[in-house]
Protein backbone atom coordinates (compact mmCIF):
# COMPACT_ATOMS: atom_id res chain seq x y z
CA UNK A 1 0.00 0.00 0.00
CA UNK A 2 2.76 2.36 1.07
CA UNK A 3 4.63 1.57 -2.13
CA UNK A 4 1.54 2.34 -4.23
CA UNK A 5 1.19 5.76 -2.64
CA UNK A 6 4.84 6.52 -3.22
CA UNK A 7 4.52 5.57 -6.90
CA UNK A 8 1.40 7.68 -7.24
CA UNK A 9 3.12 10.60 -5.54
CA UNK A 10 6.16 10.40 -7.83
CA UNK A 11 3.94 10.03 -10.88
CA UNK A 12 1.84 13.07 -10.06
CA UNK A 13 4.95 15.15 -9.31
CA UNK A 14 6.38 14.12 -12.65
CA UNK A 15 3.17 15.07 -14.43
CA UNK A 16 3.08 18.37 -12.62
CA UNK A 17 6.68 19.13 -13.54
CA UNK A 18 6.10 18.06 -17.11
CA UNK A 19 3.08 20.32 -17.17
CA UNK A 20 5.18 23.20 -15.89
CA UNK A 21 7.61 22.38 -18.67
CA UNK A 22 10.38 21.95 -16.17
CA UNK A 23 11.41 18.64 -17.60
CA UNK A 24 12.08 19.84 -21.12
CA UNK A 25 15.52 19.01 -22.36
CA UNK A 26 17.45 18.52 -25.56
CA UNK A 27 16.63 17.71 -28.26
CA UNK A 28 14.27 20.66 -28.53
CA UNK A 29 12.07 21.00 -31.57
CA UNK A 30 10.54 24.35 -30.73
CA UNK A 31 11.22 27.66 -29.05
CA UNK A 32 9.62 28.14 -25.64
CA UNK A 33 9.95 31.87 -24.93
CA UNK A 34 10.61 32.78 -21.32
CA UNK A 35 11.20 29.21 -20.16
CA UNK A 36 14.32 27.58 -18.86
CA UNK A 37 16.50 26.58 -21.85
CA UNK A 38 19.01 23.80 -21.28
CA UNK A 39 22.27 23.41 -23.16
CA UNK A 40 23.90 20.08 -24.18
CA UNK A 41 25.10 19.44 -20.63
CA UNK A 42 21.73 20.13 -19.05
CA UNK A 43 22.52 23.60 -17.72
CA UNK A 44 20.33 26.66 -18.32
CA UNK A 45 21.92 28.70 -21.11
CA UNK A 46 24.01 31.51 -19.64
CA UNK A 47 24.32 34.06 -22.45
CA UNK A 48 22.37 37.14 -21.43
CA UNK A 49 22.27 40.38 -23.41
CA UNK A 50 23.52 38.20 -26.23
CA UNK A 51 24.01 38.30 -29.95
CA UNK A 52 24.45 35.72 -32.67
CA UNK A 53 27.01 35.23 -35.41
CA UNK A 54 26.34 32.81 -38.25
CA UNK A 55 29.39 31.18 -39.79
CA UNK A 56 29.67 28.20 -42.16
CA UNK A 57 26.41 26.50 -41.23
CA UNK A 58 26.64 27.15 -37.51
CA UNK A 59 25.14 29.81 -35.28
CA UNK A 60 27.24 31.09 -32.38
CA UNK A 61 25.45 32.70 -29.47
CA UNK A 62 27.62 35.02 -27.35
CA UNK A 63 26.32 36.50 -24.12
CA UNK A 64 27.00 37.65 -20.61
CA UNK A 65 27.81 34.80 -18.26
CA UNK A 66 25.83 35.83 -15.19
CA UNK A 67 26.20 34.59 -11.66
CA UNK A 68 24.35 35.63 -8.54
CA UNK A 69 24.96 39.30 -9.24
CA UNK A 70 25.40 41.44 -12.31
CA UNK A 71 29.15 41.82 -12.19
CA UNK A 72 31.30 39.82 -14.57
CA UNK A 73 32.96 37.00 -12.68
CA UNK A 74 33.48 34.65 -15.60
CA UNK A 75 33.23 36.64 -18.82
CA UNK A 76 31.48 36.13 -22.13
CA UNK A 77 30.15 32.66 -22.83
CA UNK A 78 29.55 31.14 -26.26
CA UNK A 79 27.23 28.37 -27.48
CA UNK A 80 26.91 26.82 -30.93
CA UNK A 81 23.95 25.38 -32.78
CA UNK A 82 22.97 24.27 -36.25
CA UNK A 83 19.19 24.33 -35.68
CA UNK A 84 18.76 27.28 -33.26
CA UNK A 85 16.90 25.10 -30.75
CA UNK A 86 19.70 22.94 -29.37
CA UNK A 87 22.82 24.68 -28.10
CA UNK A 88 26.22 23.28 -27.26
CA UNK A 89 28.18 24.98 -24.53
CA UNK A 90 31.48 26.03 -26.15
CA UNK A 91 32.93 27.53 -22.98
CA UNK A 92 34.16 30.99 -22.14
CA UNK A 93 34.99 33.10 -25.21
CA UNK A 94 36.38 36.10 -23.33
CA UNK A 95 37.51 35.45 -19.79
CA UNK A 96 37.67 38.12 -17.11
CA UNK A 97 41.16 38.80 -15.82
CA UNK A 98 42.51 38.24 -12.33
CA UNK A 99 45.08 41.00 -12.75
CA UNK A 100 43.84 43.82 -10.48
CA UNK A 101 44.88 46.55 -12.93
CA UNK A 102 43.08 44.95 -15.91
CA UNK A 103 40.07 46.85 -17.23
CA UNK A 104 38.22 43.54 -17.46
CA UNK A 105 39.16 42.36 -13.98
CA UNK A 106 36.63 40.10 -12.30
CA UNK A 107 33.99 42.37 -10.76
CA UNK A 108 33.87 44.78 -13.70
CA UNK A 109 30.60 44.92 -15.66
CA UNK A 110 30.61 43.34 -19.11
CA UNK A 111 27.31 43.60 -20.95
CA UNK A 112 25.70 42.91 -24.33
CA UNK A 113 28.72 41.36 -26.13
CA UNK A 114 28.40 41.04 -29.92
CA UNK A 115 30.78 39.37 -32.37
CA UNK A 116 31.31 40.01 -36.08
CA UNK A 117 33.70 38.38 -38.53
CA UNK A 118 36.19 40.45 -40.48
CA UNK A 119 37.05 38.84 -43.79
CA UNK A 120 40.05 41.04 -44.58
CA UNK A 121 41.93 40.03 -41.46
CA UNK A 122 40.23 36.64 -41.01
CA UNK A 123 39.54 37.68 -37.42
CA UNK A 124 36.53 37.63 -35.12
CA UNK A 125 35.90 40.94 -33.40
CA UNK A 126 33.92 41.24 -30.19
CA UNK A 127 32.62 44.56 -28.82
CA UNK A 128 30.84 44.92 -25.49
CA UNK A 129 29.67 47.48 -22.96
CA UNK A 130 32.28 47.81 -20.24
CA UNK A 131 31.97 49.41 -16.84
CA UNK A 132 35.11 49.59 -14.76
CA UNK A 133 35.16 47.78 -11.46
CA UNK A 134 33.79 49.75 -8.53
CA UNK A 135 32.52 52.64 -10.63
CA UNK A 136 28.90 51.61 -11.09
CA UNK A 137 27.74 52.58 -14.57
CA UNK A 138 29.74 55.80 -14.77
CA UNK A 139 32.59 54.73 -17.08
CA UNK A 140 30.20 54.08 -20.03
CA UNK A 141 32.84 52.58 -22.30
CA UNK A 142 32.91 50.20 -25.18
CA UNK A 143 35.50 47.41 -25.14
CA UNK A 144 36.95 45.31 -27.94
CA UNK A 145 38.56 41.87 -28.09
CA UNK A 146 39.70 39.68 -30.99
CA UNK A 147 40.29 36.04 -31.83
CA UNK A 148 41.29 33.91 -34.81
CA UNK A 149 38.83 31.25 -33.62
CA UNK A 150 35.15 31.95 -33.46
CA UNK A 151 34.71 30.41 -30.01
CA UNK A 152 37.86 32.09 -28.68
CA UNK A 153 39.80 32.61 -26.55
CA UNK A 154 39.40 36.32 -27.34
CA UNK A 155 42.28 38.69 -26.52
CA UNK A 156 41.17 41.89 -24.88
CA UNK A 157 42.52 44.95 -26.70
CA UNK A 158 41.18 48.14 -25.14
CA UNK A 159 38.14 50.16 -24.07
CA UNK A 160 37.19 53.81 -24.36
CA UNK A 161 34.46 56.34 -24.96
CA UNK A 162 34.35 56.53 -28.75
CA UNK A 163 34.50 59.35 -31.27
CA UNK A 164 36.65 61.66 -29.12
CA UNK A 165 37.27 64.92 -30.97
CA UNK A 166 34.65 64.21 -33.65
CA UNK A 167 31.27 65.71 -34.41
CA UNK A 168 28.32 63.70 -35.73
CA UNK A 169 27.16 64.07 -39.32
CA UNK A 170 25.00 67.16 -39.89
CA UNK A 171 26.18 68.83 -36.66
CA UNK A 172 25.56 72.53 -37.16
CA UNK A 173 28.04 75.27 -36.34
CA UNK A 174 25.58 76.38 -33.70
CA UNK A 175 25.55 72.97 -32.05
CA UNK A 176 29.31 72.90 -32.06
CA UNK A 177 29.76 76.40 -30.71
CA UNK A 178 27.07 76.57 -28.04
CA UNK A 179 28.39 77.10 -24.57
CA UNK A 180 28.98 74.13 -22.33
CA UNK A 181 25.88 74.22 -20.17
CA UNK A 182 25.58 70.68 -18.78
CA UNK A 183 26.07 71.76 -15.19
CA UNK A 184 23.84 74.78 -15.09
CA UNK A 185 20.52 73.30 -16.23
CA UNK A 186 18.33 71.33 -13.89
CA UNK A 187 17.75 67.79 -15.16
CA UNK A 188 14.31 66.84 -16.52
CA UNK A 189 13.15 70.44 -16.89
CA UNK A 190 11.90 71.65 -20.29
CA UNK A 191 14.95 73.85 -20.97
CA UNK A 192 17.15 70.86 -20.12
CA UNK A 193 15.24 68.61 -22.55
CA UNK A 194 15.56 71.18 -25.25
CA UNK A 195 19.27 71.58 -24.62
CA UNK A 196 19.63 67.80 -24.64
CA UNK A 197 18.25 67.55 -28.17
CA UNK A 198 20.45 70.45 -29.07
CA UNK A 199 23.60 68.61 -28.01
CA UNK A 200 24.08 69.37 -24.33
CA UNK A 201 25.92 66.13 -23.50
CA UNK A 202 27.25 65.70 -27.01
CA UNK A 203 29.26 68.90 -26.52
CA UNK A 204 30.25 67.98 -22.99
CA UNK A 205 31.72 64.67 -24.21
CA UNK A 206 33.05 65.80 -27.58
CA UNK A 207 36.64 66.09 -26.38
CA UNK A 208 36.89 63.03 -24.18
CA UNK A 209 34.68 60.68 -26.21
CA UNK A 210 30.98 59.89 -26.24
CA UNK A 211 29.37 57.68 -23.61
CA UNK A 212 28.71 54.14 -24.77
CA UNK A 213 26.39 51.87 -22.77
CA UNK A 214 23.83 49.43 -24.28
CA UNK A 215 25.22 48.44 -27.66
CA UNK A 216 24.99 46.24 -30.70
CA UNK A 217 26.85 45.71 -33.98
CA UNK A 218 25.63 45.57 -37.54
CA UNK A 219 27.37 44.56 -40.77
CA UNK A 220 25.68 46.00 -43.84
CA UNK A 221 25.43 44.25 -47.23
CA UNK A 222 28.56 46.05 -48.46
CA UNK A 223 30.62 44.63 -45.58
CA UNK A 224 30.82 47.90 -43.62
CA UNK A 225 30.39 47.45 -39.88
CA UNK A 226 28.61 49.77 -37.47
CA UNK A 227 28.56 50.12 -33.70
CA UNK A 228 25.24 51.31 -32.24
CA UNK A 229 25.12 52.44 -28.64
CA UNK A 230 23.25 54.52 -26.07
CA UNK A 231 25.15 57.78 -25.58
CA UNK A 232 24.50 61.20 -24.04
CA UNK A 233 23.37 59.85 -20.63
CA UNK A 234 21.26 57.25 -22.52
CA UNK A 235 19.21 60.02 -24.15
CA UNK A 236 20.44 59.43 -27.69
CA UNK A 237 21.56 56.45 -29.72
CA UNK A 238 24.74 56.90 -31.74
CA UNK A 239 25.56 54.82 -34.77
CA UNK A 240 29.23 54.82 -35.71
CA UNK A 241 31.08 53.45 -38.68
CA UNK A 242 33.86 51.08 -37.69
CA UNK A 243 37.26 50.86 -39.38
CA UNK A 244 37.96 48.31 -42.13
CA UNK A 245 39.31 45.79 -39.63
CA UNK A 246 36.27 46.44 -37.34
CA UNK A 247 38.63 47.10 -34.42
CA UNK A 248 38.29 50.85 -34.06
CA UNK A 249 36.00 53.81 -34.71
CA UNK A 250 36.38 56.09 -37.72
CA UNK A 251 34.97 59.30 -36.23
CA UNK A 252 31.96 59.16 -38.55
CA UNK A 253 28.74 58.86 -36.60
CA UNK A 254 25.07 59.79 -36.57
CA UNK A 255 22.83 60.81 -33.68
CA UNK A 256 19.62 58.80 -33.74
CA UNK A 257 16.51 60.48 -32.28
CA UNK A 258 18.20 62.85 -29.82
CA UNK A 259 16.56 63.01 -26.42
CA UNK A 260 14.26 59.99 -26.95
CA UNK A 261 16.02 57.77 -24.40
CA UNK A 262 16.32 54.59 -26.41
CA UNK A 263 18.46 51.72 -25.20
CA UNK A 264 18.92 47.97 -25.79
CA UNK A 265 19.21 48.52 -29.58
CA UNK A 266 18.68 45.53 -31.89
CA UNK A 267 18.83 46.12 -35.64
CA UNK A 268 17.83 44.45 -38.89
CA UNK A 269 17.51 45.41 -42.52
CA UNK A 270 14.43 44.48 -44.53
CA UNK A 271 13.51 45.47 -48.09
CA UNK A 272 15.95 48.36 -48.13
CA UNK A 273 14.89 49.80 -44.77
CA UNK A 274 16.75 49.70 -41.48
CA UNK A 275 14.77 48.87 -38.35
CA UNK A 276 15.86 49.13 -34.74
CA UNK A 277 13.87 47.65 -31.90
CA UNK A 278 14.88 49.40 -28.70
CA UNK A 279 13.54 49.85 -25.18
CA UNK A 280 12.98 52.79 -22.90
CA UNK A 281 15.30 53.36 -19.97
CA UNK A 282 13.87 51.60 -16.92
CA UNK A 283 16.90 49.53 -15.91
CA UNK A 284 16.10 45.85 -15.39
CA UNK A 285 12.34 46.47 -15.49
CA UNK A 286 10.63 45.87 -18.81
CA UNK A 287 8.87 48.70 -20.64
CA UNK A 288 7.15 49.11 -24.02
CA UNK A 289 9.58 48.51 -26.91
CA UNK A 290 10.02 51.10 -29.64
CA UNK A 291 10.42 50.62 -33.36
CA UNK A 292 12.79 52.96 -35.16
CA UNK A 293 13.06 53.10 -38.93
CA UNK A 294 15.30 54.80 -41.50
CA UNK A 295 16.13 54.59 -45.19
CA UNK A 296 19.80 54.98 -44.46
CA UNK A 297 21.90 54.45 -41.36
CA UNK A 298 23.25 57.99 -41.51
CA UNK A 299 19.92 59.56 -42.43
CA UNK A 300 17.02 60.68 -40.26
CA UNK A 301 15.34 58.05 -38.10
CA UNK A 302 11.64 57.92 -37.22
CA UNK A 303 10.14 56.41 -34.11
CA UNK A 304 6.93 54.53 -34.93
CA UNK A 305 5.64 53.22 -31.61
CA UNK A 306 5.63 49.86 -29.90
CA UNK A 307 6.18 46.88 -32.24
CA UNK A 308 4.84 44.51 -29.58
CA UNK A 309 1.13 43.72 -29.97
CA UNK A 310 -1.43 42.06 -27.71
CA UNK A 311 -1.47 41.18 -24.07
CA UNK A 312 1.61 42.30 -22.11
CA UNK A 313 2.82 44.37 -25.06
CA UNK A 314 3.24 47.24 -22.59
CA UNK A 315 6.13 45.30 -21.06
CA UNK A 316 7.26 43.69 -24.33
CA UNK A 317 6.17 40.30 -22.98
CA UNK A 318 8.40 40.88 -19.98
CA UNK A 319 11.56 41.26 -22.05
CA UNK A 320 14.11 43.77 -23.27
CA UNK A 321 15.57 43.59 -26.76
CA UNK A 322 19.13 42.44 -27.31
CA UNK A 323 19.45 41.23 -30.93
CA UNK A 324 17.59 40.46 -34.11
CA UNK A 325 18.66 37.25 -35.71
CA UNK A 326 18.54 36.77 -39.44
CA UNK A 327 17.54 33.11 -39.99
CA UNK A 328 19.68 31.63 -42.74
CA UNK A 329 18.17 29.95 -45.77
CA UNK A 330 14.73 31.46 -45.26
CA UNK A 331 13.34 34.61 -46.76
CA UNK A 332 12.38 37.51 -44.54
CA UNK A 333 12.95 35.41 -41.45
CA UNK A 334 14.03 37.41 -38.44
CA UNK A 335 13.87 36.53 -34.77
CA UNK A 336 13.47 39.08 -32.00
CA UNK A 337 15.75 38.09 -29.12
CA UNK A 338 15.00 39.63 -25.74
CA UNK A 339 16.10 39.08 -22.17
CA UNK A 340 13.75 38.48 -19.29
CA UNK A 341 16.02 39.82 -16.57
CA UNK A 342 16.08 38.43 -13.04
CA UNK A 343 18.20 41.02 -11.21
CA UNK A 344 17.79 39.21 -7.86
CA UNK A 345 19.38 36.10 -9.31
CA UNK A 346 20.63 36.98 -12.81
CA UNK A 347 21.74 33.45 -13.74
CA UNK A 348 18.07 32.39 -13.84
CA UNK A 349 17.11 35.07 -16.38
CA UNK A 350 15.41 33.58 -19.45
CA UNK A 351 15.23 34.40 -23.15
CA UNK A 352 12.25 35.58 -25.13
CA UNK A 353 12.64 34.72 -28.81
CA UNK A 354 9.74 35.62 -31.09
CA UNK A 355 9.34 35.76 -34.85
CA UNK A 356 9.22 39.20 -36.43
CA UNK A 357 5.91 39.40 -38.31
CA UNK A 358 4.81 41.94 -40.88
CA UNK A 359 1.38 43.58 -41.06
CA UNK A 360 -0.51 44.44 -44.27
CA UNK A 361 1.53 47.64 -44.62
CA UNK A 362 4.78 45.75 -44.31
CA UNK A 363 5.31 47.13 -40.81
CA UNK A 364 7.20 44.74 -38.50
CA UNK A 365 5.64 43.64 -35.21
CA UNK A 366 5.98 40.94 -32.60
CA UNK A 367 3.29 39.06 -30.73
CA UNK A 368 3.35 36.38 -28.11
CA UNK A 369 3.74 32.70 -29.04
CA UNK A 370 3.73 30.20 -26.21
CA UNK A 371 5.83 27.93 -28.41
CA UNK A 372 6.79 28.04 -32.07
CA UNK A 373 9.29 26.71 -34.56
CA UNK A 374 11.05 27.81 -37.73
CA UNK A 375 8.33 26.38 -39.98
CA UNK A 376 6.45 29.52 -38.95
CA UNK A 377 8.52 31.33 -41.59
CA UNK A 378 7.36 28.97 -44.37
CA UNK A 379 3.70 29.90 -43.98
C1 LIG B 1 19.37 48.17 -18.60
C2 LIG B 1 20.32 47.76 -19.69
C3 LIG B 1 21.05 46.53 -19.22
C4 LIG B 1 21.77 46.89 -17.94
C5 LIG B 1 20.79 47.45 -16.94
C6 LIG B 1 21.48 47.92 -15.66
O1 LIG B 1 18.61 49.25 -18.98
O2 LIG B 1 19.65 47.52 -20.87
O3 LIG B 1 21.92 46.07 -20.20
O4 LIG B 1 22.76 47.85 -18.21
O5 LIG B 1 20.08 48.53 -17.48
O6 LIG B 1 20.56 48.52 -14.79
Your description of this structure?
Helices cover 10% and strands 37% of the residues. It has helices at residues 2-19, 173-177, 190-198, 200-205; strands spanning 48-55, 58-64, 75-81, 88-95, 109-118, 123-131, 141-147, 155-160, 215-219, 225-231, 236-242, 249-256, 263-270, 273-279, 290-294, 302-303, 308-309, 320-326, 334-340, 350-355, 357-358, 364-367. With 379 residues, it is mainly beta. It has 4 helices and 22 strands. It is globular, with a radius of gyration of 22 Å. The site of beta-D-galactopyranose has 10 residues, from β5 and β13. Beta-D-galactopyranose binds at residues 49, 111-112, 214, 263-264, 281, 283-284, 320.
Structure keywords:
379 residues; four-stranded antiparallel beta sheet; 4 helices; 22 strands; 10% helix; 37% strand; binds beta-D-galactopyranose
Query: Unreliable segments (pLDDT under 50, ≥5 consecutive)?
Result: 13-21
Tell me the distance between the termini. 53 Å
Instruction: Quickly count the helices.
Output: 4
Give the overall pLDDT as a whole number. Answer: 93
Strand content: 35-45%
Can you write the helix and strand succession as a string? HEEEEEEEEHHHEEEEEEEEEEEEEE
Envelope shape: globular
Rg over CA atoms: 22 Å
The overall strand count is: 22
